[in-house]
Specification:
Length: about 375
């Protein structure tokens, strides 16, 4: 009997010890879960809590940056707070992972708003639009103007100043770049775009122009002249046709922009017509003095001007003159010199009338001021 009682006491002790172990383990699990919930709530609070930066601030996400690298740079720049309990970079990474945005980070420069939280910053660099950095090659720009723009007006570009590229070798479009890109890489892109576009335009050209436009280089040269003669897309094919028709008849092109290019060599812009002395000046580009096309382009044309030469209008026109002093009014075209003279007279009359009207308005405004009236700006 004594042994039975001893065995029962021993079994009870063992059961009691096992229960204690289970209770202890359960307590640890509960405490662990409470700790995890506490950490989660703390991390979530930190992730969505307003930041301490009091002003809008730009931040650059480098190409190829990971979430962790981006978070580290945000912390280094003070855009997310340093945290002693949970490292901020890990909080940022965990938030991105939880929101399934760890692979959505965009490269670029972003403007982060004042007091932006980690959540706000993550949304901006994954869903927002980076700031634009670009250089425009405006149709009709000379290579000198473009090189000057690259070398002097773009602090976000790096590297040595670029050398002057050949005239007409740059396609006139907008070029986006990433801050830190080199000037030379952007210039290379401009030249590559022109080569690619010219190849397509030349392959698709109307072969009827082959009698006078014998190479892609000829096409660019004439397109640059068309670009400088008119800013109206609708009349570029007609302007191109006039020059092609003149070349077929062995007539000199007699286009003012070539005269001015011979004077400036593209290093400045003359916002006027050529003088009588300049028209008579013998330069390699003065098409009043030379036959055929000039030795090269006088500017960098856009795609529309290239296409205008590749597909000129079906017309016999040999002449054109501006409708008025306003370039937006376009040109008057003519097949014969007699009709052209009438158009020139109409232009001179319109120009004279415009000048007289401007003088009249100036006198009326002066009289109104003398009378004490308020004159609204035009």
């Amino acid at each position: 009997m004594a042994n039975e009682r001893s065995d029962k006491k021993s079994r009870r002790r063992r059961r009691g010890g096992f229960v204690d172990v289970i209770n202890g383990l359960l307590m640890l699990v509960v405490l662990g879960m409470l700790a995890l919930v506490g950490l989660f709530l703390y991390g979530a609070n930190q992730f969505y809590q307003a930041g301490a930066v009091t002003a809008d601030t730009s931040f650059t996400v480098e190409k190829g940056s990971s979430v962790m690298t981006t978070a580290r740079r945000l912390e280094e720049q003070g855009l997310i707070p340093q945290n002693q309990i949970l490292p901020s970079e890990w909080l940022f990474w965990a938030g991105a992972r939880a929101l399934k945005k760890e692979n959505d980070i965009k490269a670029g420069v972003f403007m982060l708003k004042a007091n932006a939280s980690m959540a706000d910053i993550l949304a901006e660099i994954t869903e927002g639009k980076p700031l634009d950095f670009f250089v425009n090659v405006i149709p009709g720009d000379t290579s000198f103007q473009v090189a000057e723009r690259l070398n002097q007006q773009n602090p976000n570009l790096t590297g040595d100043p670029v050398a002057l590229p050949p005239e007409g070798s740059l396609l006139a479009i907008r070029y986006d770049f990433f801050p830190g890109d080199t000037r030379q890489s952007l210039l290379d892109k401009m030249q590559a775009e022109m080569k690619a576009k010219l190849d397509v335009v030349w392959q698709g050209r109307d072969t009827r122009i082959d009698d006078v436009i014998k190479s892609p280089a000829d096409l660019v040269t004439l397109a640059s002249i068309v670009e400088k003669e008119t800013g109206l897309e609708t009349e570029r094919p007609q302007v191109a046709a006039v020059f092609i028709n003149r070349l077929r008849k062995n007539m000199r092109l007699q286009t003012d922009p070539t005269v001015l290019y011979g004077v400036t060599e593209g290093k400045s812009v003359l916002s006027r017509g050529p003088t009588s002395a300049e028209l008579k000046q013998k330069t390699a580009y003065n098409t009043y003095q030379i036959d055929g096309l000039p030795p090269g382009p006088i500017a960098n044309p856009g795609e529309e001007a290239l296409l205008a030469v590749a597909h000129p209008a079906d017309t016999k026109d040999l002449y054109f003159v501006a409708r008025s002093a306003n370039p937006a009014d376009g040109h008057l075209f003519a097949e014969t010199y007699a009709q052209h003279r009438k158009n020139v007279s109409a232009y001179r009359k319109a120009a004279a009338e415009a000048e007289a009207e401007a003088a009249k308005e100036a006198l009326e405004a002066e009289a109104a001021k003398d009378a004490g009236e308020t004159v609204e700006p035009q």
